[in-house]
Amino acid sequence: MPQQKDIVKIAIQMPGAYPQLIQLDQKKPLSAVIKEVCDGWNLPGPDNYALQYADGVQTYITESNRLDIKNGCILRLTKAPGRCAEDLYKGIQSSDSDVRCDSLKQLACVSTDVTFAQEFISRNGHSLLVKIVEDAHEAPLIMAHTLTGFMELMDHGIVSWENVSAVFIKKIASFVNATVLDASIQQVSLAILESMVLSSSSLFQQVKQEVTLERLLSQLQVSNQQIQTKAMALLMALLQTAGHADRQVQHGISLSFLSLLPNIIHSSASVGDEMAHYLYVLQSVTLNHLESRMRMPLDSYNQDQREILHGLRQAAFETESENSLSHERRRSLCAKEFKKLGFSNNSNPGQDLLRAPPGLLALDTMAHFASRYPDAYSRFVLENSSREDKHECPFARSSIQLTLILCEILSIGEPPSETGSDYHPIFFAQDQLLDELFCICIQLLNKTWKEMRATQEDFDKVMQVVREQITRTLSSKPTSLELFKNKVNALNYSEILKLRQTERLHQEETLAPPVLELKERLRPELLELIRQQRLNRLCQGTLFRKISSRRRQDKLWHCRLSPNHKVLHFGDVEEETETPTIESLQEKIPVADIKALLTGKDCPHMKEHKGKQTKVMLALAFSVTYDVEEYSLNFIASSRTDFCLWTDGLSVLLGRDMSSECMRSELETLLSMEIKLRLLDLENVPIPDSAPPVPKPPSNFNFCYDFSQAEQ
User: Fold this and answer.
1) What span, in angstroms and rounded, lies between the C-alpha atoms of 291 and 306?
2) CA quadruple 77, 82, 83, 89: dihedral positive or negative?
3) Tens digit of pLDDT for each residue in 2-27?
């Protein structure tokens, strides 16, 4: 007699027959279960049949995955994967084009299942698809199905990409290079080339030779957003692979098409999530070529670097010919002028640039400002050198700190996050973003210094204000340097103080004791309101991305809480699908089995992917452990808001207090609104005992628009 835990109650469907409700004995061989089901419908040859899920991802049931079947699952009796593979293999070779088309279309669908893929590949079916592509005699629709099926088969990793022939690569590349071709063929061809590039460096070299960069750039300018995204994905793959081999090659590829991107970034709303991620990664990769300069201190023995330093001094001050001066006189004059420039060590200014970061990058930005805007540079230095000592704004010291701030804001030197999408549109409208931003911001710093009437002791305070000015302005997503310049200069010190005061009013406790008492009485009620909102949000569910370097669009999964708050349901989903129903999510975890909620570095997936960790990923990672903490469900939220909602909701389920910054902000907002409503001055304001009467309907409805007339 099997134990109760080995029995699963399920329903089995078959077209044209009444469903069978059975108790699946997990100890019994799957072949015996299928035989019993076939006997129930009087079907001969049970070896020709198999079971698969009827809802969601219609995976075949095998001995290796049968334990995933849960109570209440609906399965379907269908062709066995071997029989299906044999039928499709024959259908693809049919002389009837309609049969070939239908067979290839079905193949593209069922190849997502690894069990079928193994059967089809064991019959050398993938080679048959390769031959169809190499011959290239089929109609566009058949070719699209062929390429899609091939891509799905290869995605299982059963066959290595290294096995593809040079002829096949040339043919796929020709589909991408063609100026007029079916869009679906170009989309899947771009995806195939992306997988090749990511799989090995040798295939990267072949693809780079066959696909012209000019053609990929033109793909970014088409109206089809899917082709745009696939072309961007291939370009990113080329960048990523080139970066491992040669940083200069990587930088050259990225700069060659940066000028085209403003055409596809009309507004942040018009860019999809996947394209936003690619733009973010592209921004990070392109800016990271500055990392070597940022981490390299000045070399006192390097003649070129010393000449740049002295060039800064000579560009700022018109001095008599130094050659006619004695060594001591010339040395004294240089020290005096370096002091006016704002170097702390005026006798050896190179010592100020030993700090790395920003290292030599600070020297680069200062030199760029002096050469590109000589009048503004001279005005900055001379204006401050004529002030009293304690009120002068030190150019060199300010420039070094400002360069470091810009590096931190733009995340220069940090690897791109797997889930990041916070790119700056201004980056794609400017070739030398860091240098040009520096030129605007160093003049802003001088302006803010004067507005604050700062002294040397206020240096750190001024830099904090300037950082806030830059950060707030960039958060508004300016699309050009001119727009950034106008916005950041409008955000002067007085405006910053107003913004800070407004934000502080929401945080400071400036209420009278009776009001504070009322606030404490309201707090539990409003906390309960937030708890219910968090649980409702978990019941709606959220899409999460997995950590992966390949085919990001297919690495999605959905998680949601059951309406009775007792079970977490989750499972893989496709990018294009709508929000999945709770029944289609195959996996589930009882809330009662959850043991702990982990965040940041404590999460198992952060420990496993130490090489991919970034500050952003650590801030968005969380996990729940269950079954005596032996298993974990790992998340990476797409935003800080989702992170707060889910960690708060999971804390509520575990009977713990919510602790996120979003909860605190929402609680303060609700408390403020409720207290203001309670404290409204209603004196001499009559409050009726009954609701006001409903007004009479209008005499006519001529103001209504007649849609029927427009349709005629």
Assistant:
1) 21
2) positive
3) 555 688 899 999 988 888 999 988 88
DSSP strand pairing (74-79 vs 621-626): unpaired
DSSP code string of 235-266 = HHHHHHHHHHH-HHHHHHHHHHHHTTGGGT-S
Q: Is the dihedral of CA 11, 13, 17, 23 positive or negative?
A: negative
Strand duo 7-13 + 74-79: pairing: parallel
Mode of pairing for the β-strands spanning 621-626 and 631-636: antiparallel
Closest CA to 107 of 134, 132, 126, 135: 126
For 335-368, letters b (16+ CB in 10 Å) and e give eebbbbbbbeebeebbebbeebbbbbbbbbbbbb
Mean predicted confidence (pLDDT) in 454-464: 90
Radius of gyration of the chain (CA): 33
Strand partners, 589: 568
Write the CA distances from 15 to 12, 18, 54, 86, integer angstroms. Answer: 10, 8, 11, 22
d(CA 481, CA 586) in angstroms, rounded, equals 50
Q: Is the pLDDT of residue 206 over 70?
A: yes
Average pLDDT on 629-650 reads 88
Report percent pLDDT > 70 for the chain.
88
pTM here?
0.56
DSSP-H helix ranges across 246-326: 247-258, 273-287, 291-294, 303-316
CA 466 to centroid of chain Cα atoms: 28
| 144 Cα distance to chain centroid | 29
Q: Say whether pLDDT at 244 is over 50.
A: no
User: Tens digits of per-residue pLDDT, 40-85?
Assistant: 999 999 999 999 998 878 899 999 889 889 888 999 999 999 999 9
pLDDT computed for residue 711 by the predictor: 42
Q: What is the DSSP string of 186-238?
A: HHHHHHHHHHHHHH-HHHHHHHHHHS-HHHHHHHTTSS-HHHHHHHHHHHHHH
Give 138-179 as a DSSP string. S-HHHHHHHHHHHHHHHTTTSS-GGGS-HHHHHHHHHHHH-S
